[in-house]
Request: fold
Amino acid sequence: MQILNTTRETVSISKVIGIILMFAAAGIGQDAISAKVDDFIRVEMQRQQIPGVSLAVVKDGKPVLVKGYGLANVEHQVPVKPETIFQSGSVGKQFTSMAVMILVEEGKIALDEKIGKYLGDVPASWSNITIRHLLTHTSGMTDYPANFDFRRDYTESEFLKMAKEVPVAFAPGEKWQYSNLGYVTLGMIIGKVSGKFYGDFLNERIFKPLGMTTARIISEADIVPNRAAGYRLVKGDLKNQEWVSPSLNTTADGALYLTALDMVKWDEALTTGKLISKAGYEAIWKPVKLNSGKDYSYGFGWAVKSVNGSRVIEHGGAWQGFKSFIARYPEEKLSVILFANLENMDPTKFAHGVAEILEPKLIPKPVDDPDPKVTSEFKSLFEKVVAGTIDKNIFTPELQKALFGQPDRLFEFVKGLGPIKKFYFLERTTDSLPTYTYAIEYGEMSLVLVIARDSAGKIALFGLEPT
Reply:
């Protein structure tokens, strides 16, 4: 299937957004930059068999490129345009964190308050979980259980009851582990504190004030102009997205409709400091400190990293046949926003690739692997964990419980990605333990693995996250 041969592209003539590239100061002509971006997008769309992509680039506080590529709807041959509406996936978590911070600054929520104050009776395992723990994925809460029915409608009380029954993986603050249930719970807390449905709170306090006119909670029943269709690849053939129940599209872990134009306005608000104070933004983008005293590269709904010494604040999302990504480079005053309507694609490569075209200094420098033998050992170990053939005794008792105490949906998902394309060294630190960080590339996404052995040779740290 050659998607590229059937795609078209369109440029908005919006009064708000001018499609202008102004990088003369960098010594590169705007036509050359535009052509490089277009070529890069087209090649990746063809390679990854992506029907449609929506891209926005903001430089020096101005939207310099907002463009659609390919098809929003393959069946009706509708092209992507800047007004095309995509699903947010977990990019929506940053709006949840903003809603929480608005309530924090109004004195209605405290970051270090136990969540039981807002939820009432909670399990003993939740008794020391705070709002901050939920925001930073350090609560010990995990994900939807393996037997969760995504096609059943749940009430909020049923959601909460289900979440309470899922065992926590570790003590609050002990480690980092991505948790959709944590953000679902935050949405419930926002509702209880504000007296409004989470989606209504976002609309009134974030979307309307910022002029994000098409941003909203997902509703597949409503008539939504410019809505894209989501797709997935099954044995190389393009299929429509799988459906979920309406209630699953109202949760605070990432169930929003957004356009590139909405996200340009969101990026402007983040740059100019709208909605909350400077201190509030500093809290959102500060790496979380674990109980050990070590920082982990995640804030409140944002990954906080660096490339060649330049800070990058970013997050991706995936849901119902859609992928999304936003990467913000504060020192370069550059933001790249991307939506695509294919489940089996890697949005990180797109966003980072566009940023590297505009700012070549963001191209990651090659890093020498200090111990290729260790890398080979950890690659084999990782593959065995995913396959379920690992000897669990090589892990510390605490990590055994965290990793294998209950089914891990991320590992189940990774099983379906096929063979590893690349597994390579990124970093080695020697704080309390020698800790190794690796990039793992598949055909449709990338992961980061953080792993360490203790003095007895047991695996004491095993962290996995999408990039």
